[in-house]
Amino acid sequence: MPANQLPVPQQIALLVKALDGAKRTNEALARCRNGDEMVDVLLGAAAKLGLRLTRRDLLETPPIRDWIWFRNNDPLLTVGDRKPRYQQNIDRPEPSQRKKFLGIF
C-alpha cells in the first residue's frame, strides 16, 4: 500500500521515523520560533516523503501535536495555577513548612 494511503497515525509515524537523523530538517525545526513555523517545515518534509498530511493532521496527531504544543509553551498538563509541573517544583515550600499526611485512622 502506498504511504499516502495509510491512516494518518501511520503516516505520522513514517514522518517521525524519517526525521530521526535528518540533520537539515532538525536544524530547521530548532530554528522555528513557534508551532506554526514548525508545521510549515513538517508539511514540507511530509510532501518530500509523498505523504498527504494536512496542517490539521499535524496539529491533532501525537507526537507531532505534542512537539508543537511544547514549542508554543502550552503544556499538555498543568497542575494548580496554570504552571507546568516542572515550574511548580520551584515554588514548593520548605519541607518544614509543609503539612505531613498522617494517614487514615
Task: Write structural notes for this entry.
- The protein is mainly alpha-helical and 105 residues long.
- The chain contains 6 helices and 2 strands.
- It has a two-stranded antiparallel sheet.
- Helix 3 (35-48) runs antiparallel to helix 5 (64-71).
- The longest helix is centred in the middle third of the chain and has 14 residues, at 35-48.
- The radius of gyration is 20 Å and the shape is globular.
- Mean pLDDT is 78; it is low at 84-90.
Would you report the number of β strands? 2
Averaged pLDDT, please? 78
Characterize the main sheet.
2 strands, antiparallel
Radius of gyration: 20 Å
Order of helices and strands: HHHHHEEH
Shape: globular
Q: In what order do the strands lie side by side in the largest sheet?
A: 1-2
Number of helices: 6
Q: Oligomeric status of the shown chains?
A: single chain
Q: Helical residue percent? A: 40-55%
Structural class: mainly alpha
Give the structure's gist in a few sentences.
This protein has helices at residues 8-19, 23-31, 35-48, 55-60, 64-71, 85-88, and strands at residues 78-79, 83-84. With 105 residues, the protein is mainly alpha-helical. A hairpin with a 3-residue loop joins strand 1 (78-79) and strand 2.
